[in-house]
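Working notes for the structural subgroup meeting. M.R. asked for a predicted model of this chain before we commit to crystallization trials. I am recording the input and output together here so anyone reviewing the notebook later can reproduce the run.

Input as submitted:
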Amino acid sequence: MSGARPPRLVVGVSGGSGMPYVPDLLRLLRELGVETHLVVSSGAKRVMTAEGSGPQLADLTALATHVHEDRDLAAGIASGSFRTDGMVLLPCSAGTLAKVAQGFTDTLITRAAHVTLKERRRLVLVVREDPLPRPMLVNLLAAHDAGATVMTASPGFYHAPEDLNDLLRFVTARVLDQFGLDVPGFRRWRDGTPEDPE
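Returned structure, recorded in token form:
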């Protein structure tokens, strides 16, 4: 993270299931003093409506520092000269993944992702879809080879989660690890514990 200004991350939300991860991520970033630039795709807005009981657009925008419309290709984050510390796409839908992997920049989310890659900044794509068809696997590899970090919204269980919030926190804390951001209280594997005796 840059020391010349507060940390700054772009958070893209595309139309995959998994919206409950987003407010947890934004809440953590705010607590850590990170300036956030939120972009929510039209597909994500439809998913929020369809899932009903989960977080809605107003819940996300209330947690972000800045909010941009996905159709606004003139936003600051569309340019490489607008300095950020990277971008996370959570969730990253199969369609958005394909665009990022192939360099299509028809929306602000995909343009910001393209800019992140071309400037050699950290781009984290968090996918949540099963099973994975071959076209998606090919696109995941292409995104990886272009410089993105690919993660799945798949929580671990070694930290003995007690509720849904613990499961969400496992994924969001691991995402923030990719940006060098440490989540207070996050329980790690064997962190500070002795090895088992042989």
